[in-house]
Amino acid sequence: MANKTGIYPGTFDPITVGHMDIITRGLKLVDHLIIAVAEDIPKTPIFTPADRVALVRKELTNLPKKDQARVEVKAFRGLLVEFAAKHNSAIIIRGLRAISDFEYEFQMACMNSRLNDDIETVFLPASENTHFISSRFVKEIARLKGDISSFVSPDTAKKLKDYYKK
Asked: Domains in the chain, ordered, with CATH?
Protein backbone atom coordinates (compact mmCIF):
# COMPACT_ATOMS: atom_id res chain seq x y z
CA MET A 1 0.00 0.00 0.00
CA ALA A 2 1.26 3.50 -0.88
CA ASN A 3 2.13 6.00 1.80
CA LYS A 4 -0.69 8.33 2.68
CA THR A 5 0.30 12.00 2.50
CA GLY A 6 -1.71 14.72 4.19
CA ILE A 7 -1.53 18.48 3.91
CA TYR A 8 -2.09 20.74 6.91
CA PRO A 9 -2.39 24.25 5.46
CA GLY A 10 -2.45 27.54 7.30
CA THR A 11 -0.98 30.95 7.78
CA PHE A 12 0.86 29.97 10.98
CA ASP A 13 1.35 33.63 11.89
CA PRO A 14 2.51 32.54 14.41
CA ILE A 15 2.35 28.81 15.02
CA THR A 16 0.63 28.06 18.34
CA VAL A 17 0.29 25.10 20.67
CA GLY A 18 -3.12 24.58 19.02
CA HIS A 19 -1.45 24.11 15.64
CA MET A 20 1.02 21.69 17.18
CA ASP A 21 -1.87 19.71 18.66
CA ILE A 22 -3.43 19.33 15.20
CA ILE A 23 -0.05 18.36 13.72
CA THR A 24 0.49 15.68 16.37
CA ARG A 25 -3.00 14.28 15.94
CA GLY A 26 -2.84 14.57 12.15
CA LEU A 27 0.23 12.34 12.16
CA LYS A 28 -2.01 9.55 13.48
CA LEU A 29 -3.98 9.71 10.21
CA VAL A 30 -1.23 9.89 7.60
CA ASP A 31 2.22 8.48 6.94
CA HIS A 32 3.65 11.80 5.76
CA LEU A 33 2.42 15.30 6.66
CA ILE A 34 3.23 18.47 4.78
CA ILE A 35 2.71 21.68 6.71
CA ALA A 36 1.73 24.10 3.95
CA VAL A 37 2.44 27.70 4.91
CA ALA A 38 0.26 29.97 2.79
CA GLU A 39 2.02 32.87 1.09
CA ASP A 40 -0.81 34.61 -0.76
CA ILE A 41 -3.56 35.16 1.74
CA PRO A 42 -6.17 37.86 2.34
CA LYS A 43 -4.78 38.42 5.84
CA THR A 44 -1.76 40.63 6.43
CA PRO A 45 0.70 38.48 8.38
CA ILE A 46 3.29 40.09 10.61
CA PHE A 47 5.95 37.55 9.67
CA THR A 48 7.28 36.85 6.19
CA PRO A 49 6.62 33.45 4.62
CA ALA A 50 10.28 32.53 5.24
CA ASP A 51 9.98 33.51 8.92
CA ARG A 52 6.76 31.51 9.32
CA VAL A 53 8.33 28.44 7.67
CA ALA A 54 11.36 28.77 9.98
CA LEU A 55 9.14 29.09 13.08
CA VAL A 56 7.16 25.98 12.11
CA ARG A 57 10.36 24.02 11.42
CA LYS A 58 11.72 25.06 14.80
CA GLU A 59 8.54 23.86 16.53
CA LEU A 60 8.73 20.50 14.79
CA THR A 61 12.04 19.81 16.56
CA ASN A 62 9.92 19.28 19.70
CA LEU A 63 8.22 16.25 18.14
CA PRO A 64 9.59 12.75 18.74
CA LYS A 65 12.35 11.92 16.23
CA LYS A 66 10.20 9.28 14.52
CA ASP A 67 7.52 11.91 13.85
CA GLN A 68 9.99 14.61 12.77
CA ALA A 69 11.04 12.36 9.91
CA ARG A 70 7.42 12.19 8.70
CA VAL A 71 6.80 15.94 8.52
CA GLU A 72 8.01 18.62 6.16
CA VAL A 73 7.25 22.31 5.85
CA LYS A 74 6.71 24.09 2.54
CA ALA A 75 5.50 27.55 1.65
CA PHE A 76 2.92 27.60 -1.11
CA ARG A 77 1.09 29.99 -3.41
CA GLY A 78 -2.08 29.45 -5.39
CA LEU A 79 -4.86 26.95 -4.94
CA LEU A 80 -4.48 24.49 -2.09
CA VAL A 81 -5.94 21.62 -4.11
CA GLU A 82 -3.31 22.16 -6.79
CA PHE A 83 -0.58 22.11 -4.13
CA ALA A 84 -2.08 18.91 -2.68
CA ALA A 85 -2.30 17.22 -6.08
CA LYS A 86 1.28 18.24 -6.90
CA HIS A 87 2.42 16.52 -3.70
CA ASN A 88 0.27 13.40 -4.24
CA SER A 89 -1.92 14.15 -1.25
CA ALA A 90 -5.57 13.18 -1.20
CA ILE A 91 -6.09 14.50 2.34
CA ILE A 92 -6.32 18.05 3.65
CA ILE A 93 -6.34 18.30 7.44
CA ARG A 94 -8.09 21.25 9.06
CA GLY A 95 -8.51 22.11 12.72
CA LEU A 96 -11.81 23.38 14.09
CA ARG A 97 -12.01 25.50 17.22
CA ALA A 98 -15.63 26.61 17.23
CA ILE A 99 -18.89 26.56 15.31
CA SER A 100 -17.81 29.74 13.52
CA ASP A 101 -14.74 27.88 12.19
CA PHE A 102 -16.95 25.08 10.93
CA GLU A 103 -19.06 27.25 8.64
CA TYR A 104 -16.03 28.76 6.92
CA GLU A 105 -14.09 25.48 6.79
CA PHE A 106 -17.12 23.57 5.48
CA GLN A 107 -17.55 26.07 2.64
CA MET A 108 -13.86 25.87 1.82
CA ALA A 109 -13.95 22.05 1.84
CA CYS A 110 -16.92 22.09 -0.54
CA MET A 111 -15.14 24.49 -2.91
CA ASN A 112 -11.98 22.38 -2.79
CA SER A 113 -14.02 19.26 -3.50
CA ARG A 114 -15.61 20.97 -6.47
CA LEU A 115 -12.16 21.90 -7.79
CA ASN A 116 -10.74 18.39 -7.21
CA ASP A 117 -13.02 15.65 -5.94
CA ASP A 118 -10.08 13.28 -5.42
CA ILE A 119 -9.02 15.31 -2.37
CA GLU A 120 -10.86 14.91 0.94
CA THR A 121 -10.87 17.35 3.83
CA VAL A 122 -10.63 15.86 7.31
CA PHE A 123 -11.68 18.06 10.24
CA LEU A 124 -10.03 17.62 13.63
CA PRO A 125 -11.71 19.38 16.53
CA ALA A 126 -9.38 21.37 18.73
CA SER A 127 -8.45 19.73 21.98
CA GLU A 128 -10.16 20.88 25.14
CA ASN A 129 -7.10 22.83 26.29
CA THR A 130 -6.42 24.58 22.95
CA HIS A 131 -9.86 25.35 21.46
CA PHE A 132 -9.71 29.03 22.47
CA ILE A 133 -6.24 29.76 21.06
CA SER A 134 -5.98 31.73 17.84
CA SER A 135 -2.95 33.38 16.26
CA ARG A 136 -4.93 36.62 16.05
CA PHE A 137 -5.50 36.72 19.83
CA VAL A 138 -1.93 35.65 20.57
CA LYS A 139 -0.60 38.52 18.47
CA GLU A 140 -2.92 40.99 20.18
CA ILE A 141 -1.87 39.82 23.65
CA ALA A 142 1.80 40.02 22.62
CA ARG A 143 1.28 43.51 21.17
CA LEU A 144 -0.16 44.61 24.52
CA LYS A 145 2.79 42.97 26.32
CA GLY A 146 0.71 40.24 27.94
CA ASP A 147 1.84 36.74 28.88
CA ILE A 148 1.62 34.41 25.87
CA SER A 149 3.74 31.61 27.33
CA SER A 150 0.86 29.12 27.51
CA PHE A 151 -0.14 29.71 23.87
CA VAL A 152 3.17 29.49 22.01
CA SER A 153 6.65 28.07 22.52
CA PRO A 154 9.41 30.18 24.08
CA ASP A 155 11.04 30.63 20.63
CA THR A 156 7.83 31.91 19.09
CA ALA A 157 7.12 34.12 22.11
CA LYS A 158 10.56 35.71 21.73
CA LYS A 159 10.00 36.30 18.02
CA LEU A 160 6.66 37.99 18.79
CA LYS A 161 8.13 40.13 21.57
CA ASP A 162 10.97 41.21 19.28
CA TYR A 163 8.48 42.11 16.54
CA TYR A 164 6.37 44.28 18.86
CA LYS A 165 9.42 46.07 20.30
CA LYS A 166 9.76 47.84 16.93
From this structure: 5-131 (3.40.50.620)
